[in-house]
Task: structure prediction
Amino acid sequence: MQKFKKHIPHYFSLIGVFVAGIIGFYVYSYDRFFQIGVVVALAAAYVSWGIIHHTIHKDICLTVVLEYIAVAILGVTIVLSLIFRV
Amino acid sequence: MEKLIHLLIPRHTNNHKAKMLHSFSLLVIASFLILFQAVINFSPKIGGAILGYAASISRDEVVRLTNLKRAEAGLSPFSINSSLNNAAYAKGADMINKDYWAHVAPDGTQPWAFFNSVGYKYRYAGENLARDFSNANDAVTAWMNSPTHRDNILNPKYKEIGIGIIDGDLAGSDTTVIVQFFGAGYADAVREPIAQAATTENIKPAAVATIKPTAVPTVVPTFVLEINTAPAVITTPNAEQQVLVSPFTTTRNVSLIVVALLLLVFVVDAYLVSKRRISRIAGRSFAHVIFLGMILSIVIILRSGQIL
Result:
């Protein structure tokens, strides 16, 4: 819990980026290319956030980076499969 | 049971991290989702009736909803023009037959060619396209959310509307295409700019004594219309038809299940690791939960259908 409280400012920035992405998705619901751009940008921002966050806390390693990349790939796959399905 | 616990609960056998949350497992899940999409794409060709898509969209409903939007904007409603209906249907049939999804056909045929083909002499003309919508309301809402399509619907220059709805195969996918044609004939357009005659209330009595009211000359251009008198074959989709198994809905349901399960496993994993005070090298579970929460929101927001 102590560790979580220490990370709160970082989490706020991450939540801010994601909320902006969701709003962008909703507002530009008619623009597929924009939506594809948004989801790829959000995934890239998420991986970047992970690398920066763990670098600041001095616990970065390849396993951690790969974990963020794997979660990002899964998220992008889910959203793109729906965008290309519509 | 042992394997299930190994998959979902952090313990010594999975290096104190649920096996499902390992990077390799996440990539395997992503691969399965891609494979699932391939199955959806190919299953209709293999099994025929596994997945079907039939629209419950009627032309009258599209016109009614479109006119509702115009009424909300204080505009006069469109009147239905049967020639425009034929032209819109011809455009939809052309897209299905030539397998394209665009305003301009691959052979360069412009949308206006379809207006001309039914003998509709337009002063102004416009086109909205939609596909893969399961109902008229979603299609009209999508058009209204797009500035350029909304401009077409709320353009005061357009007076008439024609709707073409056609089911068919587009780029390998069963779909329903909606074509919305807008137009204003020459007669409508020429009448518009002519100023109204001044009312007698604005004319001073002295002037009235010498001026006799004269009719405002109305220039009506004459055209020799080459109207195609051959009746167009129109097959309107049955309004009672329903979406049998929509590929989009199936994909969305599978996505929702996968994301919800991952979220649950991440939360349980984070709770147990925190409770047992296990120290491990891993990403932040809370960050993963936020990211997957965002993906879940997007999956919920996304609606089927494309407009052009």
